[in-house]
Amino acid sequence: MIRFAVRRIFHAAVLLVLISLCSFALLQLAPGDYVDAMRLDVSISPGTAAALRSRYGLDRSLPSRYFSWWRSVVRGEFGVSFAYGMPVGSLLWPRMKNTLLLAAIAAIGSWFIGILLGVATAITPSRVLEHVIRSVMSALLSTPDVLIGLALLLLAVRTGLFPIGGMGLIDSGSTSARARDVAAHLVLPVTALVLISVPVLVRYVEAAVRDALRSPFIQAARAHGIAPWRILTGYALPAAANPLISLFGYSIGGLVSSSLLVEVIMGWPGLGSLLLESIFSRDVHVVIGATLVSALFLITGNLIADLLLYATDPRIRVER
Amino acid sequence: MIRGKSAIACGVLASIHGLALVANFAAPYSFAAQQREFAWAPPTSVHWLDRHAHFHWRPFVYGTNGADESRMYPLRFFVRGASYRFAGLFPSSRHLFGVDAPGVLFLLGTDGFGRDQFSRLLAGSRISLTAGWLAAILSLALGTVLGGMAGYYGGWLDDLIMRMSEISLALPWLYLLLAGRAFLPLDAPSSMAYLILISVVGILGWARPARLIRGLALSLRERGYVLAARTFGASGPYLLRTHILPDAAPVLLTQMALLAPQYIMAEVTLSFLGLGIDEPVPSWGNMLAGVQHYHVLTSSWWMLLPGIAPAVVALCCFTIADALAGRRGVVPL
Amino acid sequence: MNSSLAHRVSAKAPVKLFLRLSVVVFLALGCVVYRVPAEEYLVTSAAPGKYGGDLVVAERSEPKTLNPVMAVENVSREVIGLLMADLIHINRYSQQTEPALARSVDVSSDGRRYVVHLRQGVKFSDGYPFSAEDVLFTFQVYLDPKVDAPQRDLLTIAGKPVLVRKVDSDTVLFEFAQPYGPGERVFDSVYILPRHLLLRPYTEGKLNDSWDLKVAPAAIAGLGPFRFREYVPGQRLVLERNPYYWKQDARGQRLPYVNKVILEYTGSEDAEVLRFENGGADVVSRLSARNFDALAQRRNPSEILIDAGPSLEYNFLFFNLNDLSTKNLRHIESKQAWFRDVRFRQAISSAIDREAIVRLVYAGRATAIWSQVTPGSKLWRSANVVSSPRSVGKARTLLASAGFSWNQAHKLIDSSGRPVEFSIITPVNNSERVQMLTVIQQDLEEIGIDVHIVTLELRTMLSRITTTLDYDACLIGLATGDADPGSEMSLWPSGASAHFWEVRPTAPPPLWQIEIDRLMTAQMSSNDPRERKRLYDRVQELVAVNLPIIPVVSPDVLAGSKAGLRNFKPAVLLPYVLWNADELFWGARQ
Question: 3-state SS string over C535-547?
Fold first, then answer.
């Protein structure tokens, strides 16, 4: 198991290096750089703009810029943001925390609801309930993410019940008051993310539980007279866990990326909104930093999924 | 096979595509026609009962988009309107339905320029549907080839392709799109620029179908008849073409039915972020982009309605995919 | 024995005490008189207010830095303007100069020497006293070529940097190489830096890296109404009241009135409006016309919405008039025969329905313009620029006289029979300009011209108009920070950095361009305001007739605040609403 983990970590490191290489190369494709937008500001002369360009190293060749970026990575800075004049690392870290908070709570929420609804659909004898849940989930799945976000925004504007935008965190007040404020600001984005990710989860959970319930050992258990509830919790769900664990791994990465749209629409101060702004302003080190972070999430998610699978599913250990 | 719900879904999809094909004919107005005096007009109400509670067989609308109840304009079929080329072939100026001027019929309201949203929805369906299918075909084709090779040959090729797929899933494809947009020559028609953009999105999306096909190829290559063919000296490509891929056909079809709506949604997101097709050509995505503005969000609720179109298409496609997958269990998304 | 000693001591004690006291008093007086001059305040003319409350301002982008040398975009400049002060300040509302840190300025008769008398007793926001040393240090930093400050270009006149000399501890002499048209306006926004905090970074060459958003509040100080308190990444910047601020109101109360200014970052203009409506923000500015109307229609009694009239921003259409002989752009070169004909440009200008744009795109909250100077610039607008309403007939006549005609399909063709069509590029991020182009597209269709609208990402578009020169026409908007024509020097003379329509000019330039060059140079070195106005009026007339650019509309400045905020007076110069942040106060309960 240790060797497996080490091999995967090594692969992940190589992957991150390759991603950084590809990103750097891609960034040069689009013409123009960060300093170009200053042409429209008539108070900044071309001389100042050129000086700014050389300060940021934007007039150097691509390999030379890539190497100095690596030197900065070793120092822990991950390059310098042109816009903020600060190391990218210190820019990304607080935003990353905000996105992780949002993604974690949304993940808990959507998995909870997903498992609930998925198991319900799989085991319910009522065709009506099964049909209703399936239809609602299908409708949600079909609705574009943009529409879900905008509709929630409209609801919030019309009812005025929830704060829109920002994270709260008034600096005066007790910890519990601050926590309540953050929670109030979390309601809208979390709801949007949950609505976006639940339908897929319900499908998978339902399919996995159904499959597990059809297997021969479950029929044998039923023949033994074991209580249905015990069958479900003690036998079927553990068997259904296998595909779900891999899904969990993938969903971590997916959640972070779908949070980009939600953050932009709802104004949540996370990584996604920073990434979008940096892309449009060509703040390339921030873009690369944020890309690496999201790649890291994806790879970590896969790694966790693989490790969990290895640990929980004896079949895989036997195969090896 | 195809029955019940999936039959309805097929029917709905077919009619949507049919409407898209004859969009110019089916729409009462041209998608670019500005009627500036009716900017931000809510949907026109169509009546069967008039003020005196008389029933009319032919539905009608009131003048000035419903404000002037003294004038009534009945709905007619095959009216004369703006000229266009039917299916791009021969010129015509007949529209499926409409009202005589100066009456107006805005089934879904108008935007800031007084352009009929319903006509734009129909015209936009061409762009969005083509984009979705094109991207889906490209991504599926590339994914099948690469995934099939990875699964069948295994070894270092498999490792390489899988690692490449992880990279492509993590890359900033938004950046590539910015680049793509910038390098297109100015006098390329904007629809061409847009299709090239969508192709790039499709090509970049090869990773997900590739993993699926790889799994399939892995399992299929151990099948009896494949092994038998190998002992007879069949080469890899031959096996892939003749034995493995045809068995994979149902899976591929299902994937197609799943990918197309996802790429249509991707188009909606792209236009929302400002990378879509240019004015005045509508697409479902750029029609929704306007809703971000505060004044639209709060006073012009009808601008959200075009969002239903991609939802309907997606729903039908997912229903068909479910039916195709049948009892094979989970439909991998 | 003891009693006589005690007697002597007690008899001399009052005298000793008196002596000691008088020494102390004398020393104290000496300290007060000779070391600590009395504080001189600037008394403002705004209505006096009362203290208390916080001001929450919604901003669509984050400030990026607190360093005046590194700030290149508007939000950063706005924040720095709240933290720091200049010698002479342009009142954004009246557009005239006022003394700020300078108590008074004596100008020599030839307009080259400015003797600045500094206000006395002023302290930085950390309590450290302000003196001429800080002024000298400031200008040394700004003019240092190694620092590359944007201010250096503004302080370089006729190729020579301004000379700064200390006369005494509160007088500084500035000498220009030649008389400078804008005069003392040059000092506006040249913020005075604290020598006691920045000398060390400057000598170590680290000045440009100082004062980013992670700076500790104790390491940054300024002379502005507020001082830096806290930055929460991605959310807000918090400023608190500067207790040493050198302005007071007519009642003798030291400004500013509010305790804190909180700049909330929201991400977009629509998000700003949502925050304003939701009660999270007290002030919102640079609203779009449609959002302004949507807010106005809700008639919320707790909101005040103000339309401050036309801004200095002008949106204009220009054609590619560059010399393309070295580029492989045949298809554009062939169209330049049309673009270069002034009658073609005049016809286009005649065919554009500016009133429709004002009505449709800006809901009436904009003004049609025919020269680059908008009605917002009351002092400089030329009365001779004629506003000609839309006339399709006039456009057709002009085109016909230029050799164009119309074919069977009513499309415009040139003298060789080629149909006239071209594309107009514009940045994608401004939806109002895209809407403007939609109207223009329809207007030009009426005279038979096919126009393609191409929206490009901002930098891509800039690269096309400045480097690759691969475009037919472009629609952008520009706004200079000051109404004075001095800030337009980077636009009008040929070869200037923002002379976008002719980055590579053809030789020889047309006569009117040569005339414009001469006029602009002349007005920069004249210090007679009437003469400058005469010269600049002529520039406007030449632009309006020869149309190197086709001005279209100028949008209004639209802002909003909560009802209790007093002294809220949006101006048309940036920063629109925070220019008098030190005078704003809460009248009713916040």
Answer: HHHHHHHHHHHHC
The secondary element (H helix, E strand) that includes residue A102 is helix A88-123
CA distance C98 to A175: 47
C467–A267 C-beta distance less than 8 A: no
B184 at the C interface (CB within 8 A)?
A: no
At A112-165, the pLDDT tens digits run 999 899 888 888 888 898 889 988 998 998 898 888 988 898 888 888 777 777
User: What is C5-48+62-202's CATH number, 3.40.50.720, 3.30.43.10, 3.90.76.10, 3.40.1190.20?
Assistant: 3.90.76.10
Q: Test C460 with B295 for CB contact under 8 angstroms.
A: no
Between chain B and chain C, the number of residue pairs with CB atoms below 8 A apart is: 80
Decide if A3 is inside a domain: no
CATH 3.10.105.10 fits C314-555, yes or no: yes
For residue C378, give the 3-state DSSP assignment: coil
* Residue range(s) in chain C whose domain bears CATH number 3.40.190.10: 224-311+556-586
Claim to verify: residue A51 and residue A189 sit in the same structural domain:
no
pTM for the full model? Answer: 0.83
Number of A to B CB contacts under 8 A, please give it. 122
CA nearest to B183 within chain C = C460
| Percent of chain C surpassing pLDDT 70 | 95
Class of domain C224-311+556-586: alpha beta
Parts of chain C belonging to CATH 3.90.76.10: 5-48+62-202
A140 and A47 housed in the same domain: no
CB spacing of A144 vs B273 below 8 angstroms: no
Structural domains counted in chain A: 2
> Using CB atoms, which residue from C234, C264, C265 is nearest to A98?
C234
pLDDT, one tens digit per residue, over B57-66 is: 888 888 887 7
Q: What is the ipTM of this complex?
A: 0.81
Establish if B173 touches chain A: CB-CB under 8 angstroms: no
d(C-alpha C185, C-alpha C234), whole Å = 35
**A98 & A55 share domain:** no
